[in-house]
Write a structure and sequence with these properties.
Helix 1 links the parallel strand 1 and strand 2. Helices cover 40% and strands 20% of the residues. With 185 residues, the chain is α/β, with parallel strands linked by helices. Helix 1 crosses helix 8. The two termini are 19 Å apart. The longest helix has 15 residues. It has a single domain, classed as 3-Layer(aba) Sandwich (Rossmann fold), CATH 3.40.50.360. The strands form two sheets. Strands 1, 2, 3, 4, 5 and 6 form a six-stranded mixed β-sheet that branches. Strands 7-8 form a two-stranded antiparallel ribbon. Bound molecules: flavin mononucleotide (FMN).
Amino acid sequence: MRVLVAYASRHGSTMGIAQRIAAELERQEIPVAFKRVDEPIRVESYQACIIGSSVYLGRWEPQAAEFVRTNAESLSRRPVWLFCSGPVGTDHVDKQGRDALEAAQPKEFAEFADLIHPKAEQVFYGVYDPARKDATLAERLIMKVPAIRNELPAGDFRDWDAIESWAEGIVRALRPTEVGAAAEA
Ligand SMILES: Cc1cc2nc3c(=O)[nH]c(=O)nc-3n(C[C@H](O)[C@H](O)[C@H](O)COP(=O)(O)O)c2cc1C
């Protein structure tokens, strides 16, 4: 079995989450191919796929969404887990009282649920560094809008325990327990 871990990460924090997921699979002796979504990737080479992207203005990075749409048929025939890194801050409910992670689901998750029937779609807390030198011009302009700027507290809010336990759940799904395997034999 070989598992694809593919990601799109504008400023590196989503890549860090993808790395941690890949490391957890490898620790459990599951071979992993670790790639950016815009590298050449043949989905048919993998028994399962984990695909993640950062979220900006409610959307996955376009190259990640394009990867899923282009490979939808192959992805729909194997177990796929999707994730994103998005919300920043320590509030677990948003202003409307909704669960912060539920409310931060990118628009693509509903589309992909219908398109490829993923095993799970998970939002993780992300990172925001207002002092970063590599902010794009569009990001600098957007950050001048007070309503957006005030929604983005600075810091690294990635929840490594949540990320690792999500990866452990994938390992359990990929590797039937010995009891389960014996029952199937
Ligand atoms: C201009 C801007 C817009 C953002 N929009 C959203 C958003 O709509 N939803 C969200 O959950 N996070 C949003 N974020 C937070 C980022 O998704 C978060 O910082 C993420 O961890 C960045 O990942 P990356 O380092 O891989 O690019 C935004 C951040 C910036 C700077």
